[in-house]
Amino acid sequence: MAKATNNVSLAPARRRRGVSPAQRRQNLYGYLFLTPWLIGFFGLFIGPGLYSFYLSFTKYDVLSAPVFISLKNYTDMFTKDDLFWPSLARTAYFALVSVPLSVIGSMLLAILLNSKLRGITVYRTLFFMPSLVPIVASVVLFKVLLDSSFGLVNQGLRGLGMENPPGWFADSKWAIPSLILMRLWGSLGGTQMIIFLAGLQGIPTELYDAAAIDGANSWQSTRHVTIPLLTPTIFFNTVLGVIGALQTFVAAFVATQGGPAFATWFFALHIWKQAFDYFNMGYAAALAWFFAVIIVALTLVQMRLSRRLVFYYGE
User: Fold this and answer.
1) pLDDT averaged over the chain?
2) How confident is the model over 101-135, as pLDDT tens digits?
3) Measured between alpha carbons, how far is 95 from 243 in angstroms, rounded to an integer?
4) Which residues contact 13 (CB under 8 A, 6 or more apart)?
5) What is the pLDDT of residues 253-263, one digit of tens each?
6) CA–CA gap between residue 115 and residue 218 (Å, rounded)
7) I need a surface site. Which of 176, 184, 212, 308 has the fewest CB within 10 A?
8) Hey, where are the domains in the chain?
9) CA–CA separation, 5 vs 112, rounded Å?
10) Where does 80-309 sit in CATH, by number?
């Protein structure tokens, strides 16, 4: 009797382990549909990434075969490259200023655009439109607006009585603030704002009703209900914002070519210059891998901090 019971109990397990022909066919179709992505992933990402890791230990100028030089590129990076530490510091400064401003600004803008007013979709569209402008077109527009001699911004400042308005892109002190201003123009009403709007609309309305019954005003509801429940969205936008700010390249390349006086010589631009201007491909690969480690490390630190700072409703 016990033997029969055991056989009965094992039968479903055997059936679960077996795969029907229809299931095999479905799995095959799934793998077939994944094949183009897998080819691209391994052929255009993993493969070149591993090869660049090998090149980081070589001296390679494209015209000749790579020559293995062990850790020389990495030691030169820290000891002989005069632009290494300054470019890293400028990149960190750009990220530390632009990311908090863009995250806080887009969150406040999303809170305003989450109001139930007539024509609110028109306002949302208008605020989102700047993010649709290509980055190169944005740079050209801001170079015209912020031209130190004939730009509309400086003409307006002179009209307000300022005798010596900022030189913006032409001034080493104002070049990075100009790029930050341009980044804010495109990011405040862009994807970050849309993500914040989605987060706001996911907050249960009964929590606001309960806060109102307790006598909370608009500011208190925002502080004690909205912001705590938006912390997952804030965390998500912050992580993406940091990664994007650290990789800033196109704006500095088009606007200033790293100038004036290396004021906007960011780390990504430094990698590009080493690779495609000086043809130090091996050294550029070493710089890129070092930069990738920094980005991954910062992301892991943010994820670790999120355990204390991020509140997930319902957990």
Assistant:
1) 89
2) 999 999 999 998 988 888 888 888 888 888 888 99
3) 9
4) none
5) 999 999 999 99
6) 12
7) 308
8) 80-309
9) 66
10) 1.10.3720.10
